Amino acid sequence: MDRRKFILAGAASAVATAALADDRRTTSATPVVVPTGNTVKARVIVIGGGMAGTTVAKYLRLWGDSVEVTLIERMPTYTSNIMSSLVLTGQRTLSSLTYKYDALRNKYGVTTVFGDVVAVDPVNAKVTLADKTVLTADRIVMAPGITFDAVPGLGTSDKMPHAWTAGTQTTLLASQLGAMRAGGVAILTIPKTPYRCPPGPYERACLIADWLKVKKPGSKLIVLDANPDIVTEKDNFTNAFLGLHGNVIEYHNNAEVLSVDPAGMNLYTAGGGTFHGDVVNMIPRQRAGGLIAATGLNNATEGRFAGVNVLSYMSTTPGAGKVHIIGDSSATTQPKAGHIANQEAKVCADALSRILAGGSPDTAPVTNSACFSTITATQASWLHAVFQYDPVTTTMQSVPAATGASVGWNTDSFEDMSKWFGALMADSFA
Amino acid sequence: MNHQSRRKLLRLAGTLLLISSGLCANAQTSPAGRLLASNCFQCHGTNGKGPGFDTLAGKSASEIYQELIEFRSGKDGNGLMAKHSLGYTDAQLRQLSQWLSTQR
After folding, report:
1. Pairing verdict, β A220-225 and A249-252
2. Fold adopted by A3-147+287-361
3. Which ipTM did the prediction report?
4. What is the pLDDT of residue A38?
5. Do A427 and B41 touch (CB under 8 A)?
6. Is A247 within 8 Å of chain B by CB?
7. Which of A128, A274, A374, A423 has the smallest count of CB within 10 Å of its CB?
C-alpha cells in the first residue's frame, strides 16, 4: 500500500475496508467514538500492540480531535506478561492471558495492521513493512518493548528459557519445572537493572519456591542476582527469601551470569562461581526493542534505551521530533512495567492531542505505578509509586510519601491482584 | 477606576478565564483534571466506569475528594489507596475529583 492509498483509507471507512480487505489487515466498519471520514485532521501510527501501544491508540481516539490511528503489531493477539509466572505453577493458563485487538478496532475505530516493521524514517514519519508497504503519518509512537542480550554459550538452546516474554518460553519453563525431580535444583537469574518489571523475578522466585515445597519436596531454588542487592520491595522479599522460603531459596547478590553451558546445565558467574541446575530460568539483560536501535533512537542508558522528553515522550534524538517512544523501550526514571506504561501512554496521547491541534503538552503530568507480587500461591504483597514532573531536572520524580510497599503479604492482596489485573487489561484493551 | 478595584476586576477576569477553560477546553488544551484523573482508570476503569475497584463515575466531586482526603489521613488504614492519595497536591486532588464528577 502506498502513501496515497493510506490516505485514501482514512478518507472513508467503507473504502478503507475494501482497500485493506485481506486476512492481515482489518478495519472497523463503524468507529463509534470519533468519526473518521473526511473529518480526519491528523494521522498517528503506533508501532507495537503491548500495554503502552494499545493504550495510546485507544486514548488518541478518545481524546484526539479526529486523529486517525493505525496500530501496527506483529501478532494477531497479545499474551500478558503480567500474571504469567502463575502459568509456571499451573494456576493460570496462557489462553486466560490472551487479549485481542477487536475492541480497539470496533469500539474505538483504530485501524490495525498485522505485520513486521522493517524500517522507520523518523524525519519524514514513514514506516516500511516487510511486505514493502510504506505508511506515512504526522507522528509515530513507538512501543516495541524490550529485547534480550545474547547469553554467551547459550546459542539457540531451549534448555535455559527466560520466560520473560509470555508465550512459548513460558510453556517451555513450565514443562521443565514439571519434569524436574524432587530434591532437584532450580536456578533463576536476575539481570542488571534496568529490566522489565523490577519486582518480577523476586516474586517469581517466591512463587516457584512455594510450589517446589509442595510439588518437588527437598528441592532448592538458587537465585543469582546480577545486582548488588534486591532492587525493589526489599523488606518483603528479604523476609520471604530468608524467612518463609529460607529452606528453599539460596540468594546470591553480585552474581551476574557471564556465560552458560546448556549441555552441562552450568552457569558461570562474575567472581568465578559455577552453578549447576536441573532447571534454569535464565533472564538475560535487556534493551529496547530492536527497532529503536535500528532507527538510531537508542541515545540513553549506554545505548540500551531511548531518551524521551517526559512531557510528551518525544524522542530526544536530534531530528526525530516526529517520533514518540513509550513503555519499556523508553529511558525514564519510571519503572519498566505494564501499569505505568499505560499511564505514559495517556500522557503521550494527551500531549499528541494538543500538539496535533496546534497546542503544547501539559506542563505538570503525573503518573503512577502499582503492582502486586505473589509471595506464595495464595498470598501477595503490593508495591506503589506516584511520579510528578520536576521542571528543574525535567524528569518524573517519585513522591516519597506515595512510594513504597505493603507491610507484609496476605490473601486479600492476592484477590486484589486479580481485580487490578482485570481492570488494567480492560483500560488497555477493552 | 482606582488601583484596587482594577486589580479586583483583573482577578475576576482571571478566575472566569480559568473556569471557562476548564468547562469547555478548546482543541489545543484538554479538559482540566482529565489527564490527572486518568491515573485512576487502571484500577477503576476507563473514565471511572469500571470494571475493577469501586466505580467512580456518578459520584459528586466533593464525595470523591472527601474519600481521597480520608485515605490521606490514614483513617482507612495503610492500604494502597492511602499511599496513592499522598501522591497528589491538594489542588490536583480537587481537579481530578471535579473532572470525575462529570462522568455519569
Report:
1. parallel
2. FAD/NAD(P)-binding domain (3.50.50)
3. 0.90
4. 59
5. yes
6. no
7. A274
